[in-house]
Amino acid sequence: SGAALPGGHVEDKESFHDSVVREIYEETGLTIKHPQLVGIKNWHTDEGIRYIVFLYKACAYSGQLRSSEEGQVRWVNRRDLPKMDLAYDMLALLRVFDEAALSEYFYHDKVDGRWQKKFY
Prior knowledge:
By secondary structure, this protein is α+β, with helices and mostly antiparallel strands.
């Protein structure tokens, strides 16, 4: 557990764009504008199913920040993130948002029960 970014699933017959706008609104009360796909996080489950997470960011929004049944939300200074209790791979995942040369965060092969991770 720990702090994580808002997210969710794409509904039937819903575009990726519409799903990210909807999920952010449902979880934060904010309506984001012009979300941009910045990369993906992906892995294969133990059952051999590929799981893909699309990573979007947006620089413009309207509305008032509010928590939901999904959890408590709040604004945090980016410099404070390393000192916080975060979801297990949040700092690594943020590299895809920050580093223009990166577009993929891939979990592959388990070694001693731990996923090996690569950035591309």
